[in-house]
Amino acid sequence: MTKVKDTLREHDLRNTSCREDVLAILTQNNAALSHGEIERELDNRFDRVTIYRTLKTFVDKGIIHKVLDEEGLRYAVCKDQCSGPQHHHDHLHFKCTVCGLTNCIENITIPPIQLPAGYRSIETNLLIQGVCPLCNSDN
Amino acid sequence: MTKVKDTLREHDLRNTSCREDVLAILTQNNAALSHGEIERELDNRFDRVTIYRTLKTFVDKGIIHKVLDEEGLRYAVCKDQCSGPQHHHDHLHFKCTVCGLTNCIENITIPPIQLPAGYRSIETNLLIQGVCPLCNSDN
DNA sequence: CAATATTTGCATCGCTGTTGCACTTGGCGG
DNA sequence: CCGCCAAGTGCAACAGCGATGCAAATATTG
Q1: For the whole model, what pTM was predicted?
Q2: Mutating which of A66, A68, A106, A128 best tests the B interface, going by the most B Cβ atoms within 10 A?
Q3: Tell me: the pLDDT tens digits for A97-131?
Q4: Which one of B68, B110, B136 has the shortest CB-CB distance to A118?
Q5: Are B34 and B46 in contact (CB under 8 A)?
Q6: Distance from C-alpha of B129 to C-alpha of B125, rounded to nearest angstrom
Q7: What is the least distance, in Å, from the CA of B76 to any CA of chain A?
Q8: Where are the beta strands (DSSP E) in A2-135?
């Protein structure tokens, strides 16, 4: 929990209970969460709008990043290489179609894509859907 | 336009004016369109709900596919290799942050990603954000 | 042309995400 | 420790997305 406070301070954000709680929830969860899921976990202790603004602030500061899947938008904490000094913009996420959880896959870099001439790439976002190890019973 | 009718027939869909027009719009546009954009192009000639159902039907039949970006859901017609017999599930889209258009990139296959053990991949969706050739003035 | 299964329009609902404004609070200096 | 003020929060309201149930309209088939 001290870690959460530190993270807020490091990003020049005031330490408020909403920010603490939202960041704690996202840190404890390794799956990406939607606004609605976070709201439910907070058990109506904060206004919807406040949670939206908190998430937006975190994204702007690079503390968390957006995760897209067909069901909508989710959020996950950035790992060190994402929020640190050598901030990169490649994200690889895996969505399990059985359990429905979306996770960041670490340790794998997206191979460089050779785009046609004239295209300039800034950010890469890869979503792989399939079955995760826990739901995969082919063994 | 006959082509549109043929496509509908090939997928066992009744030939209705809403389906014709929606498919024609998507075929003429090479950028992916959102529900709202399609609705505007149709100039209120069809009910919102009808357009939603039409798009859903097309996705189910494999005539169009969903395109995700941070602003929401869009739709684009599947190219032959996507809707034909050797239907694949890899999609590469490029979103230009200047003009805002999202296009399918053809002729480029996503390099295979070596997932950690236990993961089974079914569908791959890659969104690259950056600047497209038309908006890129570095020359 | 008639029968029928499909499609459409309308009403309605719930969820997502945003904005404006007034109130509250965190962190600063004294 | 206290007051100040910018930053953050809650509330009300709004616009858009996406879905469902039902009655009316329409495309196909014979």
Answers
A1: 0.89
A2: A128
A3: 999 999 998 888 888 888 999 999 999 999 999 99
A4: B136
A5: no
A6: 13
A7: 15
A8: 64-69, 72-77, 90-96, 102-104, 120-131
